[in-house]
Write a structure and sequence with these properties.
This protein is mostly helical and about 110 residues long. It has one domain. The chain has three helices and no strands. The longest helix is centred in the middle third of the chain and has 37 residues.
Length: about 110
């Protein structure tokens, strides 16, 4: 993953997609609705949204696999209720973040007529 995309200068730091989405949203108001820069920012947000969705889904799948293996391992012992509560809250938060990312991708795709 490169730090800066040569095809879109606004698509940076792919591994920090959620943060970059917020940074780019702040920049949108600086450009008119029909400007090339605004469209490039929107395209960068959409790419970051795609990255964030993939990261969230792969991460959730991995958590599920880990929990399955932990529960089916006789040597694992008891999992503390607080641990399960923390994992539940994390998964809930990730689902909410994924919903936000999906909503923003749809809104922004409409903005540039994609």
């Amino acid at each position: 993953m490169s730090a800066i995309s040569t095809e879109n200068p606004y698509f940076q730091n792919e591994s920090r997609a959620p943060y970059e989405i917020g940074v780019l949203f702040k920049q949108l108001s600086q450009f008119s609705r029909k400007s090339k820069q605004r469209n490039e920012i929107i395209k960068a947000i959409i790419r970051h949204a795609d990255t964030a969705q993939l990261t969230l889904l792969c991460g959730l799948e991995s958590i599920g696999r880990l929990l399955y293996h932990a529960a089916s391992n006789d040597d694992a012992g008891q999992i503390a209720p607080a641990t399960l509560i923390d994992l539940g809250q994390l998964i809930r938060h990730l689902a909410v973040e994924a919903q936000f990312v999906l909503d923003m991708e749809d809104v922004l795709s409409e903005e540039i007529g994609r």
